[in-house]
Structure formats: C-alpha cells, structure tokens
Amino acid sequence: MNCKEIKDYLRNMAKMTEKSQMAGFYEWLLKNGECFETQNKQLSKSYFDDGRHKVKQCFYNSAINLLSDDKLKYYEGYYLPGLPIALKHAWNVKKGEVIDTTSIAGNFEVDAYFGVEIPKNIRLIEYEQADTFLDALEWYWLNYIKKK
After folding, report:
1. In degrees to the nearest 10, what's the CA dihedral of 81, 85, 90, 95?
2. Residuewise pLDDT in 10s, the chain (148 residues)
3. Local structure of residue 91 (DSSP, 8 states)
4. How are beta strands 112-117 and 34-36 bridged, if at all?
5. What CA–CA distance (Å, rounded) separates 46 from 33?
6. Rounded CA gap, 138 and 145, in Å?
7. Could you give the C-alpha distances from 2 to 16, 91, 125, in angstroms and in order?
C-alpha cells in the first residue's frame, strides 16, 4: 500500500462532499499534500517519551513534539496504519523524514502518509481557541485557506 490508496480515498471523499461546507477541502488537500512512504523509526524513537506520548493521541503527540524542537514541522492528513483504509493522522517532519511517535507508542507499522504542513504559529492559535490539541486540518482550511 502507498499514497495512491490514500489519494483514491480522498478523491471519493471529494465527490461525496462536493455540495457541503467542505466542498473544495479534499481537492485542496490532494493538490497540496505531500506523500511520505516511510517514517524514520530511529528518529521517531529519539522523540518518544513513554510518559508523554500516548496511543490514539496523534494530534497531541505531534503538537508536543513541535513545541520541543523548533526544527520540526507539524503535518496533518491521512495515513495507512497497516489497514486497507485511510485514517486521519498527525505526524512531524524533520529534514524530509517522518517522525511518528504515535506509531511508536502503539507499536504498529504505517504503510504511507499523505498530508500538509500546518505552520507552527497557526497550530498554536488553534490550540489557544480549543484549549486542547485536537485535529486542526479542517479548521486550518476553513480559516486560513478557504477565506483567501
């Protein structure tokens, strides 16, 4: 499995939402998203902290990583976690390499990642509004991309 499966899923979602408030979101994601086929497990393990990083808390895990290292980028999008379906996910990127502390916490393999960078300053604005680290991809699109 690779990013082709994720893109196929996003194309199907684009068709299903073309008359909703989210019309254009999936097309934007397809146009602007980046594909990552693997993660750097050694690098991911170097960021992993058993006391902080939790299974099924990818948005939180990736956001706290972002706060700990100015060289990290924060990404949200979709991934294939060894299943034949794309799921929403967040991860970090450093020098083009994926850091995924959530997959380390859950001890699972990921087949591919596809998503966009959300700038750190915007990720922190969303946190201040929500008072927690939840997914921010649609919020980012609605408030910063669609409004342009």
Report:
1. 70
2. 689 999 999 999 999 999 998 889 999 999 999 999 999 999 999 999 988 999 999 999 999 999 999 999 999 999 999 888 899 999 999 999 999 999 999 999 999 999 999 999 999 888 787 777 888 999 999 999 987 7
3. E
4. antiparallel
5. 26
6. 10
7. 22, 17, 32
